[in-house]
Amino acid sequence: MSDKHIAGLHHVTAISGPPQANVDFFTKLLDQRLVKKTVNFDDPGTYHLYYGNQTADPGTILTFFPFVGARPGRPGPGMASAYGYSVGAEVFEHWTTEVRQRGAQVSSPEERFGQSVVTVTDPDGAAVELIAEPGDHAPVDGGFHSTTLWLDDLAPTQRLLVDHMGYVEAGHEATDGVERLRLQAPGDARGTVVDLFRREGAAPGVSGTGTIHHIAFRARDDADQLDWRDRMLAAGMQVTPVIDRQYFNAIYFREPGGVLFEIATDPPGFTRDEPLESLGEALKLPDKYEPLRDRIEAALPRIER
Predict the structure, then answer these.
(1) 147 near 82, Cβ under 8 Å?
(2) What does DSSP assign to residue 272?
């Protein structure tokens, strides 16, 4: 049992097809705010789009690499396969109806660990879950409720999360070859739930559009992140050095089930290079790419907001 626990999710990063459909879906159907428009720091010919609540708080941030012409992926073992937004139970039915009327494909409600869940399908076929929790908050205000990790064997990932990252078991369901183990970090931060999921006979996941690239947990500052780095190294993980991602510092490692984990710092945040009022309106580039701005802007697809 760990003497310290993760505060919850910082962000989730996924892969999509062309950016316009992605922007339209998340801003117009799910009311998310586009809080940062930048480029993939490893591939400046591709956008990196960030969505979140009005103040771009950790725990609300969903990011996409929108690759034009990329092949569809397939969720499966070794990948995060879904993320869920928290929606107030008092407005859950309203929001389910609203999103469907705006044109999204929405599943029928199901019960999971006593909570109502619907799955909304994004333009690339990915699962976006809406999960009812006490209150009357919209998805954009609730931020993340959870993420789901699809695994061949739940036990090694469970040991990492429980023994070294402070999660505790919060429920277990198994039927007809499908198993789901719920783990939850203490506290009331956003995104404290991680579901470990297994389906007998599932083919391995394939990275591509409609799949999740990685999930990121929160560190309150650089010192907290370095402490987590030491703890993950002691747990046997192969952890990267600290990498500057402009709006947070990041460390990465693959957990035993193959899912790419990141631990990201809350500061400096998304107002580092533009005011809160105009977040996401201008294309922001890291200093190393500013000399290439004209070429980068000419290569990127136009986005209408």
Answers:
(1) yes
(2) S
Per the prediction, the chain carries an average pLDDT of 97
Residue in 291, 196, 270 with CA at minimum distance from that of residue 34: 270
- What DSSP character marks residue 74? B
Q: Which residues, in sequence order, are CB contacts of 51 under 8 Å at separation 6+? A: 26, 27, 32, 33, 34, 35, 61, 62, 63, 64
For residue 123 the two structure tokens come to 């333009």
Tell me: pLDDT of 1 over 80: no
Residues 24 and 35: their CA atoms lie apart, in Å, by 14
Q: Identify the residue whose tokens are 């290079």.
A: 273
Residue 67 has pLDDT above 90, yes or no: yes
CA angle 289, 241, 1 (to 5 degrees): 135
Q: Which helix (H) or strand (E) holds 288?
A: none
Phi then psi dihedrals of residue 192, to 5 deg:
-85, -5
The Cα-based distances of 73 to 178, 204, 259 in angstroms read 21, 11, 15
Closest to 57 measured CA to CA, from 167, 148, 189: 189
pLDDT of residue 2: 85
Cβ contact 193:117 at 8 Å: no
- Between β-strands 61-66 and 43-52, what pairing exists: parallel, antiparallel or unpaired? antiparallel
pLDDT in tens, 273-304: 999 999 999 999 999 999 999 999 999 999 98
Task: Cite the beta strand spans of the chain per DSSP E.
Answer: 9-16, 33-40, 43-52, 61-66, 79-88, 105-106, 110-112, 115-121, 127-133, 144-150, 168-175, 178-184, 193-199, 211-219, 243-244, 248-254, 260-268
Calpha distance 89→227 (Å, rounded): 37
> Stretch 206-215: mean pLDDT, rounded?
97
What are the counts of helices (DSSP H) followed by strands (DSSP E) for the chain? 6, 17
How far is the CA of 59 from the CAs of 44, 218, 235, 259, 266, in angstroms? 26, 8, 25, 19, 10
Cα 143 from Cα 11, distance rounded (Å): 10
